Amino acid sequence: xxxxxxxxxxxxxxxxxELAAIADKVRRNERITDEDGLLLFEKGSLSxxxxxxxxxxxxxxxxxxxxxxxFHIEPTNVCVFSCHFCSYSRLYAHRDEGWELTMEQMLDIVxxxxxxxxxxxxxxxxxxxxxxxxxxAELMRKIKAHRPDxxxxxFTAFREAKMNVADGMKYLHEAGLDSLPxxxxxxxxxxxxxxxxxxxxxxxxxxxxxxxxxxNNMHTNATMLYGHIESYAHRIDHMRxxxxxxxxxxxxNTFIPLKFRNKENDMSHVAESTLVEDMxxxxxxxxxxxxxxxxxxxxxxxxxxxAQLSLSFGVNDIDxxxxxxxxxxSMAGSEEQTPxxxxxxxxxxxxQARRKPVxxxxxxxxxxxxxxxxx
Length: 375
Ligand code: V47
What we know:
By secondary structure, the protein is of the alpha/beta class. It contains 14 helices and ten strands.
């Protein structure tokens, strides 16, 4: 097989040689080091990173690009935490400015999808002091009683004094929780975490929650909130911790880099990352996280066209139909004020990038392969 990166592609400089050596490692399916990852961020050109990441993406998935049919329930934006990047949450003292859905209102959202072919509900929102584990277990049970086939992906942070993480996880799993989304990871490194979300669970706590889920045979995702005050070294540190846990458990499905959006939050003075930076981040994630099967671009946050572009930078999943059921990103300033795409639009978006659209379930089971169907 012809190497994708002939050495003539690089200058004769030492940096060129180092980049060529990283490309050689990737070609031999060898793991890259933290130093390699840092060098890719610091010195890799966009075209180099894109070509390298794409070679891995195509080795793993060919042209297949996944999407799913999902909707969100956001029970509340009232939250005990005060993360500075968040445009969405309201403290309990200001709960009159936020929303708190009742059990019936949440079940009505589920019922509004009766007869529609959605496969996943993503439950995400603030950590409300009065919505406890019992309340959510009851919600899970009621959702499953109404629609047993719906995969429930939910919760990013546990805050329950009465139960430890292992018992809490088992309790929610038995009530119907199928998997955990990737939120709450932000940036693990304490130097950054203390500045952006000091009161949230720390890195070890987050990793422990996900390890506990994996030990209960639940899959989870992992995110990284990038493009604010963190350095490249912090991004590599974040991905290293995820790669290590994945070596141990194999329970992560997808890595989702989340671009920091700066509208109406305490960090509005911090400029947002450029598109080049966004694509570099996807590419380095694909190259560095050799044990993560999937890299996802969350289109409601990144925008449709940029998500389409990311399919050439290592991404093989663009999430789902969403159906205007999430506010986290529209409140933070994403271009998508009412994020919703129907299946046809998702399929077209993927085909326009000359990739093969495949509808998946949450755990990447193929629901429908559109690649052989006529445009
Ligand atoms: O942890 C909050 C992020 C996350 C902002 O697992 C922001 O499939 C950018 O986890 N700018 C929650 N990001 C959402 C989440 C998620 C989203 C999509 C798919 C999945 C999945 C999980 O949203 C938070 C935080 O990192 N976030 N505010 C902001 N201003």
